[in-house]
Amino acid sequence: MGTFRQLVEVAATPAGPFVTIDMMVDTGSLYSWVPASVLRRLGVAPTEQQTFVLADGGRIRRDIAEAAVRIGGRVRHTLCVFGDEGSLSLLGAFTLEGFGLAADPVNKRLVPMEVIPALTLRPWGRLAHLL
Question: Which of 35, 82, 101, 119 could bridge 110 with an S-S bond, Cβ 3.0-4.6 Å?
């Protein structure tokens, strides 16, 4: 699997102003990571902290908050991690799923999800015991 980059716009609110960030598409990362200085400059304030497990097994705590993200002219709220300065900006799975997008690493682009998973509970179905 290859990696690729995507230009993404980020703002504090859907009204903007937006800043364009060159992000690495990383479906292995749950949340999107944006440099803390960019989020603070936009007026995004941390709302909580989250612990993350690194690839080497180490743990770090980072601030997170909701921000507005624009991809292909559509705007969604998503969770963003206040990333370290100089680290990669990552476009994570939570953000991609919110837009109904999937990574196509072969062609290095984002594509619409052909199927967006959903569960319908019907009293007559096999999951009736969950109701």
Answer: 101
Considering the entire predicted model, what is its pTM? 0.84
Contact 80, 11 (CB under 8 A): no
Tokens linked to 70: 């624009």
> CA nearest 64: which of 29, 25, 33?
33
Give dist(CA 96, CA 124) in Å, integer.
Answer: 33
70-126 confidence digits (pLDDT tens) = 999 999 999 999 999 988 999 999 999 999 999 999 999 999 987 766 666 655 555
* Record: fold of 5-130: Cathepsin D, subunit A; domain 1 (2.40.70)
pLDDT in tens, 18-33: 999 999 999 889 999 9
Give which of 106, 86, 103 is closest to 95, Cα–Cα.
103
Structural domain boundaries of the chain? 5-130
